[in-house]
Amino acid sequence: MATAGALSVPCLAETPIIADTSLRAAAHAGGRIFGAAVQFEQLDNDPAFRKLVLAECDSLTPELVLKWAAIHLAPGRFDLGPMDRLAGFARTHGKRIHGHTLLWHRSIPAWAGPEMAAPGGWNVLQSFFTAVMQRYGDVVRYWDVVNEPVEPMDDADGLRRSPFLSAFGPDYVRRALETARACAPAAQLMINEYGLEYPDAEDEARRARLLRLLDDLRRRDVPLDGVGIQAHLRLDRGAIDQAALAQFFQELADRGLFLLITELDVREVDTSRDFGRRDQRVAAATRAFLDVALDQPAVRGISTWGLSDRYSWLNEDGESGTRQPGGNRGLPYDSALRPKPLCRAMASSLRTKREFKLPYSL
Ligand code: XIL
After folding, report:
1. pLDDT given at position 5
2. Which atom of ligand 1 is least distant from the CA of 192?
3. 63 CA to middle of ligand 1, Å?
4. Contacts of 341 (CB under 8 A, 6+ apart)
5. Count of alpha carbons within 13 angstroms of residue 238, beta-carbon side
6. What is the Cα–Cα distance from 332 to 56, expressed in whole angstroms?
7. Which of 62, 107, 160, 271 is a plausible cystine mate for 151, CB 3.0–4.6 Å?
């Protein structure tokens, strides 16, 4: 279902790389791309971090500023300044933006809830999609059109009980994808989902429900190109089941969809000062996941949710929203911007020679 189109997104595979030990070089060696979620202020105020992001990433995911509630202040009124600054940074440095995200139940402007539920409520979504998809179409190739639509535990036929579901019924997913295709015909449209990685009953139910949603969309010829696997790994959930996960990735690929790992990070349990042991555990858990993901030819790349523990959302204090550097050590670079075993594990998995030839161009 992928559409060809003229995007001015740089052709990443052709970027020359000489003796480069970065994650992006490792990703390119295996035919993939690498990215991370960032905030513009981190890049603007922290030159060492900016340098690291420029060296490591092909793709930047806006952690906050492209979300609906951040942009659409009132009907017809948009605050595009913060996203413009990040898009400008990406254009200047030849990076891509990962379009995160159009519809997410946790980022609905307060005014938009009642408007969506009123007659003609789809116009509200339409105007947001049009504003951002046209404005950033030159730097965004992949859009997370719907984020986290599946929630088997909600008992609403496995779709999350969101304001979108209440206002438009289950068909909102199809409508969102069709609206997105009309706004940006050349873009690659995705559903992005979390909680798909572990062998327990909850993730199993979410995997099954996601597959059912994808089948339903496919049957109706809805424009969907790919699936984002968030991959917020958690050490309290135990080990992944590699064979089961490989089978799930294959089931997604069999549906003609490409995959991106979109938000990789690792939540720890151990908060002791034994960083050596903790870092080995984080690296091993990630390696076990990535070796499966990267064995799947449909997986086009990986993004981590942040690049350094200096700015990880996992170190966010729930009450104040502030982030304490350090704390959780679930990203490739520590809070002093030193690479950890996780970084080496990721690079090594990305570089591993695999049997297949990748079927797509970056
Ligand atoms: C998170 C941000 O990292 C936080 O700073 C914010 O408070 C909430 O959103 N899945 C997603 C991301 O798709 O958009 C979320 O980002 C993390 C979970």
Report:
1. 41
2. 13
3. 7
4. 279, 280, 282, 283
5. 6
6. 11
7. 160
Nearest partner of 265 among 104, 95, 63, judged by Cα: 63
Separation of alpha carbons 16 and 18, rounded Å: 7
* Residue 170 Cα to ligand 1 middle (Å): 24
What is the amino acid identity at position 276? G
Strands (E), the chain: 33-38, 59-62, 72-74, 77-78, 96-104, 140-147, 188-193, 226-229, 232-234, 258-267, 299-304
pLDDT tens digits, one per residue of 217-257: 999 999 999 999 999 999 999 999 999 999 999 999 999 99
Question: In this structure, what token pair is assigned to residue 73?
Answer: 């202040």
User: Measured between alpha carbons, how far is 271 from 65 in angstroms, rounded to an integer?
Assistant: 31
* pLDDT tens string 298-313: 999 999 999 999 999 9
What secondary structure letter does DSSP report for 200? Answer: S
How far CA 223 is from CA of 91, 125, 136, 185, 274, in Å, comes to 27, 17, 20, 10, 48
Q: Using a 6 Å cutoff on CB, does residue 147 contact ligand 1? A: yes
Atom of ligand 1 nearest to the CA of 37: 3
Q: Please give the DSSP secondary-structure letter assigned to residue 71.
A: H
- Determine whether the shortest distance from the Cβ of 265 to ligand 1 is under 6 A: no
C-alpha of 56 from chain center:
17
Please give the distance, rounded to the nearest whole angstrom, from the Cα atom of residue 219 to the centre of ligand 1: 31
Residues 6+ positions from 291 with CB-CB distance below 8 Å: 242, 349, 352
**Cβ–Cβ < 8 Å for 276, 340:** no
Residue-averaged pLDDT of the chain: 93
Q: 49 with 87: CB under 8 angstroms?
A: no
Q: How many CA atoms lie within 13 A of 79 on its CB side?
A: 11
Cis status, amide bond into 101, omega within 30 of 0: yes
> Packing angle between helix 122-135 and helix 81-92, nearest 10 degrees?
30
Residue with tokens 């990070």: 265
Q: Is the torsion defined by CA of 141, 145, 148, 151 positive or negative? A: negative
Question: What is the pTM for the complete model shown?
Answer: 0.94
Alpha-carbon radius of gyration of the chain: 19
